Amino acid sequence: MRGARALWRLVSTVLHGVHGVLVVLLLFPGLSAAGRRLRIAWWAGKTLRLLGLRLEVEGAFRPGAKLLVANHVSWLDIMAIHAVCPEARFVSKADVQHWPLVNRLVAGAGTLYIERERRRDAVRVVHQMAEALHAGDTVAVFPEGTTNDGHTLLPFHANLLQAAIATATPIQPLALRFSDTRHAVSPAARFDGDITLKQSLWRLACGEGVVVRLWVLEAQATAHADRRALAERLRGLVAAKLAETAGTTASTRTAGVGV
User: Fold this and answer.
1) Phi, psi dihedral angles at 194 (to 5 degrees)
2) What is the DSSP letter of 255?
């Protein structure tokens, strides 16, 4: 029964992905920005549900332009954030452009791409981010630069924060954790090391009571900030929230918004 349920979840998620691509290709060109955001939020939230995940959110996003920074556990981090903040334009590694189905979906959400292997490419992306923030957009980055096992928090790279400093745009830190009925940090959500997207999908589909928690922390001022000091401060805020909630499992859920 467990294997059959996981297979059903996986097939349903893939079909939902195909549907999402069709929406992007056929409907997005004729939709307003608000219409696109409604579709993005719906699609992201349903992706989580189809995989058997529950989303709980604490805190509120500030209105207007902002840079979101979050710890990075899984490719599903983007889904969790988009489900409640569909206007976010993520900065993603260029490799995502070659992922089947996913590439069309992330492009439809206004994703900015960075080639992390090329140091100079960060300068180009910072300029793009600054233009987006100046225009009033919400941009989101994972300053760790890669996913981790969910137990640790890697150093925050400071380069991309320069876009917010240059435009005096507030930065709002986010803390993410995946848990389940037996683990405060669910192994089903791991997407680090050599784990492939296919393997990650199957592990998530097999998960038992997986909950993704998203804590939206207070926005931080950036005007005239030193970017390295700012990166340390943001990491400290995220680390403090994760440490504060370290013992939380899906069987002892905190209050939040279910999606």
Assistant:
1) -95, 10
2) S
Of 176, 154, 172, the residue nearest 76 (C-alpha): 176
Per the CB < 8 A criterion, the answer to whether 228 and 30 are in contact is no
197: phi > 0 → left, psi -120 to 50 → alpha, else beta; which? alpha
Show Cβ contacts of residue 213 under 8 Å, excluding neighbours closer than 6 positions: 55, 56, 57, 58, 176, 177, 178, 179, 245, 248, 254, 256
* Residues 8-39 pLDDT 10s: 999 999 999 999 989 998 999 999 999 999 99
Alpha-helical segments (H) within 26-147: 33-50, 76-84, 102-108, 121-134
Q: What CATH code is assigned to 2-252?
A: 3.40.1130
Q: Where are the domains of the chain?
A: 2-252
pLDDT at 3 over 60: yes
Those residues whose C-beta lies under 8 Å from the C-beta of residue 108, and which sit 6 or more positions away, are: 23, 24, 28, 36, 40
254, 245 Cβ separation under 8 angstroms: yes
Distance CA 212, CA 69 (A): 17
pTM above 0.85, yes or no: yes
The torsion region of residue 5 among left (phi > 0), alpha (psi -120 to 50) and beta comes to alpha
Residue 235 structure tokens: 């990491």
